[in-house]
Amino acid sequence: MMLPLSLLKSAQNSALLIELKSGETYNGHMVSVDSFMNIHLRDAICTSKDGDQFHRVPEIFLRGGCVKVFRISPEAVVKLKEDMKHQRTYQKQNRQYKKQMTRGGAAKHGAGGHANGGPAAKYARNNGNSGR
């Protein structure tokens, strides 16, 4: 599942087209995005609502609440899919490692006579004795 914010973060340093609720569009390279989807663009071209005026803007900060539509390059989408795949692989390996560390008494109390573990305690429990 792709979340919009993770999609935008993967599009950093790539071309991005943004249409505002006012109708203006900005086409430029995204420098950064924050958790409110505020966008920092560099080398942007602003197009008026009716499309007859163009302005070159060296740098602009657009509020996320004013944005109507984002258009992200296909390369950014491919990059996000690859990043998600690598992240899932890493998480799977991490889970397997943690599972291995808990086997064989490495991280459990029960193999060496601690607390309720060990052969003597097991024998006592099975025979109805407290073992203590």
TrEMBL record:
Superkingdom field: Eukaryota
GO cellular component, one term: cytoplasm
Residue span(s) of domain Sm: 3-76
Localization, UniProt: Nucleus
InterPro entries recorded: Lsm4 (IPR034101), LSm4/Sm_D1/D3 (IPR027141), LSM_dom_sf (IPR010920), Sm (IPR047575), Sm_dom_euk/arc (IPR001163)
One Pfam family linked to the record: LSM
CDD domains hit by this protein: LSm4
Any GO BP annotation: mRNA splicing, via spliceosome
Record GO terms (molecular function): RNA binding
Region (Disordered): 84-132
Keywords: mRNA processing, mRNA splicing, Nucleus, Ribonucleoprotein, RNA-binding, Spliceosome
Matching Gene3D superfamilies: 2.30.30.100
Role summary: Binds specifically to the 3'-terminal U-tract of U6 snRNA.
Description of how the protein assembles with itself and partners: LSm subunits form a heteromer with a doughnut shape.
Family as reported in the entry's similarity comment: Belongs to the snRNP Sm proteins family.
Name of this chain's protein: U6 snRNA-associated Sm-like protein LSm4
Native source species: Panagrellus redivivus (Microworm)
